Amino acid sequence: MLAVIVSGLAIGAVYAATALAYNVMYSTSKVLSVTTGHLCMLGGVFGAWFIAGLGLPVPAGLVGAVLVGALFGGFTEIVGVRRVLARSDEHLWLLSTLALATMLQQAVGLWWGTEPKPFPRLIPQDFSSGLLDQKYWLPILTVLVMTAGLEAFYRLTLWGKLFQATSEDAFAARARGIPTDRVRLASYLLAGALGGLAGFAAGQLTFAFFALGLTLTLNGFIALAVGGLGSNLGALLGGAGLGLLSAFATYWFGGEYQQTIAVGLLMLVLLVRPEGLLGARRVRPV
Amino acid sequence: MRGSASGLSLALAGLALVTLPWWSGDLYQLHLVSLIGAYWVLVAGLNLVVGFAGQLSIGHVGLLAVGAYGFAVLAGTLGLDPLLVLPLCGALGGAAGLLLGLPSLRLPGFYFAMATMAFALIVTELSLAWGGLTGGGTGLSVPGFPAPFHTPWGQYWLILAIGAAVTAMTWGIARRMWGRALIAVRDSEVAAASVGINVFRVKLTVFVFSGVTAGLGGALFAALQTYITPDTFVFEIGLFFFVCIIIGGRGSILGPLIGTAVLTALPELVAPLAKLGTFFYGLTLLIVVLLVPEGIGRLVEVLAARLRAEPHRSHEVRPDLARLRRALTSQAGASPPVGEPPPVGETRPPEAPALAREALP
Predict the structure, then answer these.
(1) Are A46 and A113 in contact (CB under 8 A)?
(2) Could you tell me if A176 lies within 8 Å of chain B, comparing CB atoms?
(3) Selected residue with higher pLDDT from A14 and B302
(4) Looking at the domain assignment, is residue B313 inside a domain?
(5) Which of A175, B169, B192, B215 is deepest in the core (most CB within 10 A)?
(6) Residue B121 included in any domain
(7) Percentages (nearest 5) of helix, strand, coil residues in chain A
C-alpha cells in the first residue's frame, strides 16, 4: 500500500510540474499551450542523450536539458503564440501550439527512436533501496522546490511583479510601461526551463520516451483544471490527487483504465466546481 | 451563368468518380480513392463541428474506432448482415457522440479539445482492455460486404454512394438556417444566444450527427482495411482529420473535401512524405494557421477572383470638359448638336447621361 502511495505521489509530481508550466505560460498570455507536456519530454530525452549518449557529467546534462526546454519554450512563443495573439481569433493558438507539439513529437521520434530508453542514474545510489529510491523522491522534491521558487519569484522579485501585473491586465500593464511582449517571452522561457527540469528529474520514472509529451499535456491539464487554473498550490494538489488516483486505479483495476479514471475525475470536478479546487471564479465575458 | 458552369463541372466530376473503376490504373488507386471516400464520410460530419460550429474536436478518431469495432464485432463475431450493420454502426457512433458531447460541449475551447483527445485515448485503452470483445492487441479481422458490393468496385460504389449522400446532407445543413446558426455560434456564442439560438442544443445536435457519420465512416474504413487493431486508431489520425478541415478552410464544404483527398493521397504518392507523414501534417497545419488562417480554399478563391476578368467594372464618370464647353456654347447659340457619336473609351460607359447631368445646371 505504501508503495502505491509513493509511486502515485511521484508520478503526480510530474503532472504537477506540467501544470506549473501551464500556469506560468497562461498567466502572461492567457494561452494553454499544447506543447507543455512536450517540454518535460524534451528534458527527459535530452538529459538521457547528454549524459548517456554524449557522456557529459550530470550537472552539465542538467544545464543542457533545462536549456533545451527553455529554448523550445521561447521558440513556441516566437513562432506559435506571438503572431497568433496579434489576431483576434480566439482559438488559433490552440491550432498553432498543437502543430508545434506534433512536429516536435515526430521529430524526436524520428531522431531518438520510438522505444522508451532508460535514463541514467543521477545520484550514486544502490538499486535495492526500494521506496527510498531516487526515482521517487527526486521528482517530488523537484516539484516542491519549483513551487516554492515560483511563489518566491512572484512575490519577492520585480520581474515576478511584472509577471503578475501582466497576468492581471495586460493592457493596463502596457499602459504603465511594462514591455508585455518581453514579459511573455520571458514567461515562456521560464516555463520551458521548468518543464525541462521536471522532465530531467523524473527521467528515471518516466524513461526517455518521445510520446510522453502528449500524455503529460493531457494529465498536466487535468491536474491544472482540478486544482484550479492559475493557482500554483492548486496545481500541486491536483497533481498529487491525480497521481494517487491513477496509482490506486492501477492497483485495484489494473493498468488499462488509468486514462478513463483520470478523465472521469476531470469531468466530475468540472461538473461540481467548474473553477477547480483553488481557482478564481471566472466571469463570463459578454 | 456561373451556376450552370459549376453545375456542369459538378456533373463531370461526379461522372468521373462513378466511372473511376474503368479508367483508373490499378486496384491500388481504387483502394486509395475508396479510403479517401471513407475518410470523407467522417470528415464531412466533423466539418460541421469544426468548420461551421467552431468546436475544435481533435479526437474524432475515437468515434471512428467505435464505428470500426462495432462493424467488426456485429458483422464478424455475431455474423449479422453487413448491410444491416452499417446503419447500426451509424447509430452506435451517434450514441457515442451523444455520450461524449453531453458533458464536453459545455466546456470552453481548450477544455473541449482536451476532452475529445482524452476520449480518443480512452477508446484505445478500452479496446486494449476488453480483449474478449475486441481481440485486445491482436485485433479483429473484418468481414467484407455481401454480393453486389463484394468486389473492390462494388465496395467503391457503396462508399461513393454513402459519401455523396453525406455530402448532400451536410450541404443541405450548411446552406440553410442550421448552417447559419452554426456559423453564428462559431463567431460569437453570446451573440448567437442573444438572437435566440439554443447554443448547446445546436452544438449537441451537430456533434451527434458527426458521431453518426464517424460511425459510418469507421464501418467503411474497417471493411476497407479488412483487419483492425488498436494501433490502427492512433491519435495522429484524429489530428489528420482535423488538419484536413483547417487546411481546406473553415465554413466551406469543397475545401475540406479537397483537403482530405490531397492529404490522403500525397503521402501515398510521394514516398519521402510517407515516413514524415505526421510531421508533414503538423508543418502544414502550422503554415496554414500562421499564413492563411482562413484555409487554402479561401486563398484559392481570392486568387481566382483576382485572375478572373472582373464582372463589374467601375463606372467612373469623368466630365469631358471640352465637349461640355462646346455643348454649352452651342446651346447658347442654337439647339444642341444631335447625332454626334460619343467618343469610344476603353472603360468608359456611354457618356450621354454624364453629359446631360453636367449640362443640366
Answers:
(1) no
(2) no
(3) A14
(4) no
(5) B215
(6) yes
(7) 80, 0, 20
Tell me the CATH number at B114. 1.10.3470
Nearest Cβ partner for B122 among A101, A259, A286: A259
CB-nearest partner of B235 from A100, A214, A254 = A214
Residues 6+ apart with CB under 8 A from B8: none
Asked if A139 contacts A122 with a C-beta cutoff of 8 angstroms, the reply is: no
A92 and chain B: CB distance < 8 Å anywhere?
A: yes
Chain B residues with CB-CB distance to A101 below 8 A: 282
Q: Which of A45-54, B293-302, B348-357 has the highest mean pLDDT?
A: A45-54
What domain range is B129 assigned to?
20-307
Query: Total structural domains in chain B?
Result: 1
> Mind listing the pLDDT tens digit for each residue in B20-76?
777 777 888 888 889 999 999 999 999 999 989 989 898 899 999 999 999 999 998
Residues in chain A, total:
286
Could you tell me the pLDDT band of residue A263, with boundaries at 50, 70 and 90? confident
Contact criterion met (CB < 8 Å) for A102 and B293: no
Q: Least CA distance to A271: which residue of chain B?
A: B103
Average pLDDT over residues B283-308: 81
The verdict on residue B336 lying in a domain is: no
Amino acid of residue A6: V
Across the interface, whether the CB atoms of A102 and B126 are under 8 A apart is answered: no
Whole-angstrom Cα distance, residue A198 to residue B173? 48
- Please tell me the predicted confidence (pLDDT) of residue B334: 61
DSSP one-letter string for B38-72 = HHHHHHHHHHIIIIIS------THHHHHHHHHHHI
Q: Do A87 and B293 touch (CB under 8 A)?
A: yes
B272-311 core/surface letters (b: 16 or more CB in 10 A; e: else): eeeebbbbbbbbbbbebbbebbbbbbbeebeeeeeeeeee
Evaluate if residue A271 carries a pLDDT over 50. Answer: yes
B345 domain residue, yes or no = no
In chain A, which residue's Cα lies nearest the Cα of B192? Answer: A286
Three-state DSSP class for A120? coil
B283/chain A closest Cα distance in angstroms: 7
Contacts of A276 in chain B (CB under 8 A): none
CA distance A157 to chain B (A): 31
Residue A150 pLDDT exceeds 50:
yes
Query: Half-sphere exposure of A84 toward its Cβ, with a 13 Å CA cutoff?
Result: 28
